[in-house]
Every structure is written in C-alpha cells, then in structure tokens.
Design a protein that fits this description.
single chain, alpha/beta, Zinc Finger, Delta Prime, domain 3, 5 strands, globular
Length: about 350
C-alpha cells in the first residue's frame, strides 16, 4: 500500500509506522523521504544530490528526532565488528545514535568525539571496542529519557522553512512514544496545521502509548516482526557474517532469537511451574516483557489468518486469548501493573492456549 501511495504521490500528511523493534520502521521512513525527494526516478542507489544527502542523513529536507531502542544494533556491532563492506551501515547507525544525544549537554564531549571519528575509517578502527562500550553505556543511561516540547518546537521551526532539493520537508520522530505530555500536545498542534509541502512520520513500538487524538490523525502502517530466516539474511547483508557458521542460536543477541529460544523451552515444559518461573525471571531480568508480548501477539495474529476452518467455539476461545494477551501487554507497556506478576500470571493461565493454537514449530 505504501509503495502505491508514494508512486501516486497520495501520501497522507501524517503517518505512523508501528511494530516491534528491528522490523524496519526507521529505515522505511528514511527511504520514503529519499524516494519522494529524488530528482530522478527514485530507483534504489540513485546518485542524485537529494538521494545522496538523505542516504547520508545530512539533508536539509529531513529533520530526525531519535529515541528508539538502538541497543540491539550496537550489541551486534560489538559482536561482529566492521570491515570495508559495511562501514556505511555503521556510520548510519552512529549518526542515528548521535541524533539521540545531540540535545544533551552532558554528552557534548562524547558527541563531538564520535562525530569526529566517523569522518574516516581510521577513526572508527582506533579503539573500536571502547567506542561501542561508550555508545552502549550512554544508551543505558538515556533509557526512559523523554522527547520534550523544546525539541518539538525546534522541529516546528524546521517545518516552517522552504524545501531545498526536494519536494517535501519531512519530520521523522523515531520512537515517538517517548514524547512526554507537553511534547505530544505540541505535536498534535503541528499535525492539525501541517505546512504545505511537509510530511510527518512517526515510528513507535506500540501506538497505545500515544494520545488517541494523535493516532486518529495518522494513517497507520503496521510492521510485523521479521521471520527468523529474514533476520539472518539481514544480519548477513548488514554485518557480513554467516550467523549459522560462526554463532549458534544461543549466542545470537537479537531479541527474536531470545524469544524464540524461550518459547521453545516453554513448549517443552508448559506444566512445569519451576521452569515457567525461571523463564519469567529471565524475561524480567532482560527488561523484555513488552517485546515478549509483541512476539506472542505476532504468533497469534499469524495463526488467526489460518483459522478459517475452525469451529465457532474455537474461534471464540482464540479471540478471548488474543484479547487477554493484548490487554496484558498493554498494561505492562503503560507501567500500571507489576510486570513480574502479570507475566507469570499469563504464563501460568494462558500459555497453554498459545501452545494449542500456535505450536507450529516456530
């Protein structure tokens, strides 16, 4: 649908890409900006000035605010390193990270240091491990840092300017659920009166943490969690490593690998209370409760597509299970419940239903 809308230049003024981390929301948002502002045909790899600047994240037609979770990406860079084939991917991720700290006075020194290092391969190679540790340490301290009204006002000033090379000036808020109350109210005013020639793209893990009035003004595009093989192919292309040859599944740090491994353990012992408790502790220890429920919801939604031959009672039972999972995940997301208790309660009372409908070998 998105490709058709871009081709016809019939995109809405405000879009929301929502779905789990690692599903391609941010990269899609940047690609939308590139194609819309391309001075040629919009083909991948176009070398026109607009496409080059947008791909390098230096375009005056694009304003990015980043608060999404980058920890998994940099864990993978720390694990796999980089070479001559993937320097551009590393630099892109570092620029995205720098965007997230660019307005933080306490990290000015680190911002300047990393900005200087990404100018050359030699700068990245020198002390690469220490660089990754610095980045990951800052990501940990930035966790929960909100997007404030001052940042949204800065974006509003950007949108008031005329476009440079391209047709559109585009604001991307990556991790839009991090906007605090004031910032969301300010953004809502922008969305109600978006300047001509401007587009707004939000990305979020869940739309439920945004004001309903913001969501109602957006056209929604749901991104699904990638299948395991898709993730492996992306890792191979981006980091130039063979996951299967160099690393076993237990050593792979991506969230989906972790959830898949835990899910398989749950399948082995769905009635073992001790095992359920240990797995709940593992999820809680990693702070991955929201991601786990997104994973289970993806399994259930995939299964829903194939329930055409099920009986009415089975469909009713399945719908109740789906609603219970959504409700529990939503309560955890909004931090209005004890995460440990909610997760363990779900595993004890509802996981057998998940096994019943979704035990397809995932």
């Amino acid at each position: 649908m998105l490709n058709n809308e871009i081709g016809c230049l019939k995109l809405p003024r405000t879009m929301l890409f929502h779905g789990p981390d690692g599903s391609g929301k941010y990269l899609t948002a940047v690609e939308v900006v590139r194609v819309l502002n391309c001075r040629e045909s919009g083909e991948e790899g176009c070398g026109c000035p607009s496409c080059v600047e947008i791909s390098r994240l230096v375009s005056n037609d694009m304003f990015i605010i980043c608060r999404s979770n980058l920890k998994n990406s940099f864990n993978l860079w720390r694990k796999f390193g980089f070479n001559g084939n993937n320097v551009s991917c590393l630099v892109s991720d570092l620029k995205r990270f720098l965007n997230s700290i660019s307005r933080e006075e306490r990290y000015r020194k680190e911002f300047q240091n990393i900005s200087a290092r990404i100018a050359s391969r030699e700068g990245l190679e020198k002390g690469f491990t220490d660089l990754m540790e610095t980045v990951l340490g800052i990501i940990d301290t930035m966790k929960g840092k909100p997007i404030t009204i001052d940042t949204i006002r800065e974006a509003q000033r950007f949108l008031s300017l005329k476009s440079g090379y391209g047709r559109y000036r585009v604001l991307i808020i990556d991790g839009a659920e991090s906007m605090n109350e004031e910032a969301q109210n300010s953004f809502l005013k922008i969305s109600e009166d978006t300047p001509e020639g401007s587009l707004l793209i939000l990305t979020a893990v869940s739309k439920d943490k945004l004001k309903p009035t913001i969501v109602s003004r957006c056209r929604l595009y749901r991104f699904s969690r990638l299948q395991e093989q898709q993730e492996r192919e992306i890792i191979k292309e981006r980091y130039h490593v063979e996951i299967d040859e160099r690393y076993g599944s237990e050593d792979f740090s991506g969230e989906r690998e972790m959830f898949t491994g835990l899910y398989r353990k749950l399948l082995d012992e769905p009635d073992n209370l001790e095992a359920l408790g240990e797995i709940a502790d593992e999820i809680n220890r990693r702070g991955a409760e929201v991601g786990f429920f997104e994973y289970i919801l993806d399994l259930l939604r995939d299964r829903l597509k194939t329930l055409t031959t099920a009986s009415v009672p089975e469909i009713s039972e399945f719908e109740c299970l789906l609603k219970k999972t959504e409700r529990t995940g939503r309560s955890i997301l909004h931090a209005n419940t004890n995460r440990e208790i909610a997760l363990l309660d779900f595993l004890l009372n509802n996981f057998k239903g998940v096994v019943k409908y979704c035990n397809t070998g995932k």
